[in-house]
Write a structure and sequence with these properties.
Blueprint lengths: L2 H10 L20 E6 L19 E2 L2 E2 H11 L4 E6 L3 H10 L5 E6 L5 H8 L7 E6 L2 E2 L17 E6 L9 E4 L2 E5 H4 L9 E9 L15 H11 L2 E6 L4 E2 L3 H13 L12
Parallel strand pairs: 1-4, 1-6, 4-5, 8-12
Antiparallel strand pairs: 2-3, 6-11, 7-13, 8-11, 9-10
Length: 271
């Protein structure tokens, strides 16, 4: 089944009452909270993002946000929290109009806080363990067992891939742990075999390590702290992902999606 068909099926599912046991007590996928970071200014997209946020960029006649949600909804995830900021209005309007059987909460920052700063500022919205997805990431994998990825004693687990994606490898993994991260640790290109997919499972308590850091503070800084503590695990996969953070990658993904007819198997493996 294509991701696009799975999204339509999820939207057609009758909406029942919210699964309130998902506040951290229910380990099942329906109870796992997904946090989407989509508050940045998307400066790398240039003029494309001057009046429309990155997560709302059009892809095959619909916002990228819909594409991002496809594999999550198809896996049974139903609880979403969106961290918004720059140009939040179009995102809020789209979320209010969605017919998906999902429980959605939002927060809108008034000053730039960085990716980790936004989480820290909205920590009261977060479950003790949550799935974190960057708002420019499309990772079409199964998430039904995502709640099991984080082992006791670990503070986070990063989903990494060794598939070619157009994003240079930036992560070193040894013995199931992330030991180097290019954005944070200056990993030499030859050492990095894996690429951070923009998806991780995180304990809210890990944000306490940033208590003395002023805003803005990036997730890379948090990952660096967890690497030093040896509490950042790796969840390796072989599937590719898409990051639409640059005009070139956005244009390539948009072209692939427009080539993939609804209801057919994806010929590219990305969508």
């Amino acid at each position: 089944m294509s991701g696009r068909q799975a999204f339509r099926d999820a939207y057609q599912e009758p909406a029942g009452p919210p699964d309130r046991e998902g506040t951290g007590r229910d380990p099942g996928v329906r109870g796992l909270q997904t946090v989407v970071l989509a508050g940045g200014r998307a400066t790398r997209l240039g003029a494309l993002a001057e009046h429309l946020p990155k997560i709302m960029q059009p892809v095959a006649g619909r916002p990228f946000l819909d594409t991002l949600l496809e594999p999550l909804l198809a896996s049974g995830l139903r609880r979403f929290h969106f961290c918004l900021g720059h140009l939040a209005g179009p995102v809020l309007r789209h979320l209010r109009a969605m017919a998906a059987p999902a429980e959605i909460t939002t927060q809108v920052e008034t000053v730039p806080r960085g990716t980790a700063g936004a989480l820290r500022d909205g920590a009261h919205h977060l479950d003790e363990v949550f799935l974190l997805v960057l708002g420019d990431t499309h990772l079409p994998i199964g998430y039904a067992d995502a709640a099991t990825w984080l082992a006791p004693g670990d503070e986070a687990v990063m989903v990494v891939t060794d598939a070619p994606t157009g994003v240079p490898p930036n992560t070193v993994v040894r013995d199931g742990r992330v030991t180097g991260y290019h954005k944070a640790d200056g990993v030499r290109a030859g050492e990095a075999r894996w690429t951070d997919t923009g998806v991780c499972l995180l304990r809210r308590s890990a944000l306490d390590h940033l208590a003395d850091r002023p805003d803005p503070v990036d997730l890379g800084e948090l990952f660096r702290l967890l690497i030093r503590r040896r509490t950042l695990a790796a969840h390796p996969i072989g599937e590719p992902f898409t990051d639409i953070g640059t005009p070139e990658r956005y244009a390539e993904f948009r072209a692939r999606q427009e080539r993939c007819a609804p209801g057919k198997e994806s010929p590219c493996g990305y969508c």
